[in-house]
Amino acid sequence: MLRLRLRILRHSLAARPLAVLVAAALGLGVAALAFYGTLAFLRFLSAYPFAAGVVEVRSLEGLFLVLSAAVLLSALPGALAVLYDSRDLPLLLAWPLPAARVFTLKVVETYAVTALVPTLLTLPVLYALGVFHEAS
Question: In the record, which residues are listed under signal peptide (predicted)?
Answer without folding.
Answer: none
